[in-house]
Amino acid sequence: GRVKRQKYNPEREQKLKASAVHLLRSHQDLNDLLLEVEGPSCKKLCLSELIACEGPEPYTNHSGSFIGSVLRDEASRLGVPVGVLSARVVASSMEQICTAVAEAGPSAALAPEQRKKLSSLLETAQHLLAHGMFSRLIFCQELWKVQNSLLLEAVWHLHVQNIVSLQELVESHSDVQALGVWLFKNLCLLCEQIEESCPDMDIARAMLSGLVQMFVLSGFQKHSDPRRTVESEKMPQVAFDVLQRMLTFALDALAAGAQDGSPSHKAVTCWFGVFSGHTCRGITCTDSPKRFFSHTLTQVLTHNPVLKVSDAVQMQRDWSFARTHPLLSTLYRRLFVMLSPEELVGRLQEVLETQEVNWQRVLSCVSTLVVCIPEAQQLVSGWVARLMAHAFESYHLDSLVTAFLIVRQAALEGPSVFPSYADWFKASFGSTHGHHGCSKKALVFLFKFLSDLVPFEAPRYMQVHILHPPLVPDKYRSLLTDYVALAKTRLADLKVSMENMGLYEDVSSAGDVPEPHNQAPQDVEKAVAVFEHTGRIPVTVMEARADKIPPPLYSAYCRACSAAEEETPEDAAPGTGTEPGCAEEALGQLTAALGELRACMRDPDRYDVVSAQMAVISERLRAASRHGKDDGSCEMSKVRLSVVTPKLKQQEQEVVDLLLTSFCQNLMVASSFAPPERQGPWATLFVRTVCGCSLLPEVLSRLCQLLRLQGLSLSASHVLGLAALAVHLGESRSAFPEVDVGPPAPAGGLAFPDLLDSLLTCRTRESSLFCLKFCTAAISYSLCKFSSQSRDVLYNCLPLGLIKKFQFLVFRLFSETREPPSQEDTAGLPWSPACLAPADWQRAALLLWGQSTFQELLKEKDLHQDFHQWAIREHYLPAPAAAGGCDGDLEVACTVLADALMDFCQSLRSCDHSENSDPVPGGHTGNQDILSRLQEMAVELELERGGRSPSRGHFLFRVFRTRLQALPRGWDVAACLQRQQELLTYKRLLLRLPPSVLLGSFWAGPSTTPSCEDFFHLVNSELRNFCSHGGALTHDITAHFFRGLLQACLQSSDPSLTADLTLAECRSECPLVLTSALRWWPRLEPVLLRQWGRRCQRPLPGELQRLQEAQRFARDFLSPEAASPPPDLAWVSAAAVHFAMRRVKKEDVRRQLQKLDCAREELLVFLFFFSLMDLLSSHLTPKEAVDSLKAVAVCAEVLTCLQKRRMPWLVLFQLTETDAGLGQLLLRVAPGQHARLLPFAFYSLLSYFDEDAAVREEAFLPVAVDMYLKLTQLFVAGETSAFSLLATRNPELQGQGNPVELITKARLFLLQLIPRCPKKSFSHMAELLADRGDYDPEVSAALLSRQQAVPDDLYQEPHLFC
């Protein structure tokens, strides 16, 4: 039957254990015991099961105790310590585990199954070790007995799990060399397995990292000698030995040309990875990693030093960064991380001075140094300078050799990282400051060295030496000519065409061996030009005559050439530089390199990565573009291209398009990860690399095509990319030659900013919009990119022409930018990959304009003030008239500007219908910049003419006349308002120009006066009618005239005479100016007195004194005291009294005019006229309506006095412009509308007429009839509507001023007056009624009837004024 399962019983378990021990003592195989043990469940247990711990927790503890008990019993039986027995048993078990793995092939790592077994074994060992039953020393000894069977991972686990440390294992080994070899082989196996992506990659990498850290710490301790042999310090020896073996293996593999995928290549790749920094990052508070890296660099530089200097001279072209093995260049870059640039250069210098070196490694290290470290250029240049100084001080050839090799190697990497060899050679030997100029010995030393180089060096270096020879005193010229002859001989032997190179060769030609063509004519022209300029035969011509080389020098040259051909160096390690077989292959390699650069844009701030890739691109670019100047020694003095018709060959365009597309794509990718200011110098390196001298003409030609001819078809990303490219071209402009674009551009070269300015045109709306996009992108990118740098850097990178064009377009396209910018700064600059999308470019431009940073830039460069000046001076003024310009005529420009400015003001007025809309030229809503330019040009025009007045008058008044002629004439409301608006604009423009404009030009002399005819005509014909009030111009224009008068007087030899003559002319030609002066005299007088006294230091001129006297008379006239005698001119005195009366209160009018009875007749007549003007003004101007009653009171008082004294006042209502005296004078003072409205004033005073005088004076009736007919005509024409409106609004007038009522009263008055008037009053009545009789038939009939009546038919008159 089925056996029943028994329950667990501890006592029974102890009995079973005792029985098992007895059984084992009978058959003692301890190895089997460790690998197979019966557990509590009576199952067979293996090591793998112990690893997995599948049983319950007490299981492992019971197994360890059980095994320990067995080992203790067996050790007792054998008479050996239990620790020794345990160590031997565990060692034997490890051997079995490792042997099982080794059967599958060489390996440094365990298989998963063996790893589990080892883990279980090590747990047992830890239990034994914890209970003092395990001897570490015996265990180490037992392990090394089976060394060949051990795996590195097993040994590593012993160290990690603290069974026995690696140092204990090393110290217990008897043969240090054998141990180093074992560790080296296992490390190589481990590296291979890591590169093959073994299953347990993490364990393998952790093991490699841990071992390297231990080796570095032990082998490169401070103050320790790695080569010591003390037995107790084996660990440092072994550590140093293993690291050295690994480095030697790696360098040998590279020298042997290890193929990709080979075991050695995998091992080297993995081993170089330990220098990446991650491995040594765990080593803290110690300098061991730094010493390790420094030692490694030294070993790399000195490994296998078999190449000679001559080999280096011949082959260094193949040792550039791009042609260096990637693994080696990667190792250099990782070593550079731990050492500072100064330490690197110091280590190179020390190694070169103290040890034999591998020139290939040294020079490839120099290339990597200058490519990957931005500070290297300055440090290497300083190092070379020290070498040169030492060489010529001690005539130390090795120092000179080293300096030349280093400079040539660094220059191979292009101008983006190091100056060209030609530049260095010129700077070192092309002046009197060179080291070679100190003595003849130094010259011999230099030319001996250069001559020794000739058989080995490339033709391009000899070309540099010939074209830029060292500066040599005349007495030692033979040294130079001998060398030049030798170098030319070598070039001829190499079949380098001397005709193509010429005497004045530009080394920008492509390749070392150019195609021949006849250069002689150009050489002759250049030689003649040099001779004409200096008076000497050029040195190159003298050298060209040397046709024999000294025999000793030639013999040495021949021997060296033979030796160079026989001893072709074979020990140089192969690089990766292979010349492409065709153009398509070269273009493909360049495309691949540019693609790798785009992958670097995820972290564009990594200088070493980006610069390294740019070096590769530079190498690929030379092959693709067939520009073979490997040392960057091109020296274009000028780039020649055609802006109008730029052309490129197909291959050139393919290469340039590839480069420009790559730049735009890289910018987009980089900008998606970081803003421009955090993108590092990748763009600068790109531009300096691909736009070096070799490709600069092609790049600029393509830019001409894209910006000038294809701009409208460019996408937003292209615009952004090309804008950024332009910024970086500006940044590097000091390294680029000038550009000769040919006609129609001016003669001479253009700097790149000027070229860019010429490419961006604004001739059409489409081109203007493209220009705005480009400028917005370039300026925004610049402000972002260089935000943390000084403004000088920004100014150097950003062409000012772009800023000016941006201003020009923003002002023209966006009216809101013409206002002063607000002080609020926006969140950030608008630069982003999508900022110029079709819907966003306007917003981007406006955001940029509002930026405080941009506004500060404008202020610092003083561009706010000179923008329009630049636009006018540089473009509009010199442009031909056919193209809309001015042909250089300043007066034409002023005329157009003034006309445009007034058009601008009128357009603003028409767009703004608010009550306060009153645009001012240059005011808040005007264009202040254009006005400022007009002001400057007006003054310049006066200075240009030297004070002469043009025969056709001042340009500004011609503009006024032309514009006024285009306006409709008439006195209807629309025409008057339009004319008034135009004249207000004229006046305001006049006020903002120099006051000399009003007085014209002036010739200094004793009797000459300023030419005021234009201004007088404007006042009499226009300003009098629309810009004057009550017989006076406004204060602003009056004060402006007197400022001009003072200025003219100060330029005169007799200021008083000039003032008197000018004001006398005003009196006769433009009396309104004098009445205006009297109106504003209280404000004018203090200024005139102060300025005249300060500048002339003499009494006021007579005419100004007359104005003073008139003002004094008016003041006395209105005072109760005795009045001073009136001045000679009654109308001047009357005007003064009239304006003084304006300051009198209404209720005081009668009292103030008490002296009227004593006034002269002429004064009263003129005063009555001015009072009539005030009366009309009070009705026509709503703001003065409250003074209408006062005006009536003044007129009534004066009229009463005139009638009482029987003075002829009716003449004032019969004035004509043909009158030579009174009419001509007063009608030039009164506005035309006031003169036409005199009938209204006449009948407004109807109630104040003297009844007897009306009948008695025969002139009264004709005047009254004429005034009535004219009043009726005005009413019919609607010109009295203003009076009706005022009478309705002002209750104080009590019906006075209502035209209908006034006409009714006038009609009744005439009908009553006509029968009473004598026959004489009707003598000219028919003429009066001609063409106007039908205005009022009843009045006309009464007049005609009375005219036909009996002369003496009198009857009782009715009362007319009841």
UniProtKB/TrEMBL annotation:
<feature type="domain" description="Fanconi anaemia group A protein arcN subdomain">
    <location>
        <begin position="585"/>
        <end position="818"/>
    </location>
</feature>
<dbReference type="GO" id="GO:1905936">
    <property type="term" value="P:regulation of germ cell proliferation"/>
</dbReference>
<dbReference type="GO" id="GO:0000785">
    <property type="term" value="C:chromatin"/>
</dbReference>
<dbReference type="InterPro" id="IPR003516">
    <property type="entry name" value="FANCA"/>
</dbReference>
<dbReference type="GO" id="GO:0007140">
    <property type="term" value="P:male meiotic nuclear division"/>
</dbReference>
<feature type="domain" description="Fanconi anaemia group A protein helical">
    <location>
        <begin position="517"/>
        <end position="545"/>
    </location>
</feature>
<dbReference type="GO" id="GO:0005654">
    <property type="term" value="C:nucleoplasm"/>
</dbReference>
<dbReference type="InterPro" id="IPR055277">
    <property type="entry name" value="Fanconi_A_C"/>
</dbReference>
<dbReference type="GO" id="GO:0043240">
    <property type="term" value="C:Fanconi anaemia nuclear complex"/>
</dbReference>
<dbReference type="GO" id="GO:0045589">
    <property type="term" value="P:regulation of regulatory T cell differentiation"/>
</dbReference>
<dbReference type="Pfam" id="PF15865">
    <property type="entry name" value="Fanconi_A_N"/>
</dbReference>
<dbReference type="Pfam" id="PF24781">
    <property type="entry name" value="FANCA_helical"/>
</dbReference>
<dbReference type="GO" id="GO:2000348">
    <property type="term" value="P:regulation of CD40 signaling pathway"/>
</dbReference>
<dbReference type="Pfam" id="PF03511">
    <property type="entry name" value="FANCA_CTD"/>
</dbReference>
<dbReference type="InterPro" id="IPR055386">
    <property type="entry name" value="FANCA_helical"/>
</dbReference>
<dbReference type="GO" id="GO:0036297">
    <property type="term" value="P:interstrand cross-link repair"/>
</dbReference>
<dbReference type="Pfam" id="PF24783">
    <property type="entry name" value="FANCA_arcN"/>
</dbReference>
<feature type="domain" description="Fanconi anaemia group A protein N-terminal">
    <location>
        <begin position="143"/>
        <end position="497"/>
    </location>
</feature>
<feature type="domain" description="Fanconi anaemia group A protein C-terminal">
    <location>
        <begin position="1132"/>
        <end position="1338"/>
    </location>
</feature>
<dbReference type="GO" id="GO:0050727">
    <property type="term" value="P:regulation of inflammatory response"/>
</dbReference>
<dbReference type="InterPro" id="IPR055387">
    <property type="entry name" value="FANCA_arcN"/>
</dbReference>
<dbReference type="GO" id="GO:0008584">
    <property type="term" value="P:male gonad development"/>
</dbReference>
<dbReference type="GO" id="GO:0008585">
    <property type="term" value="P:female gonad development"/>
</dbReference>
<protein>
    <submittedName>
        <fullName>FA complementation group A</fullName>
    </submittedName>
</protein>
<dbReference type="InterPro" id="IPR031729">
    <property type="entry name" value="Fanconi_A_N"/>
</dbReference>
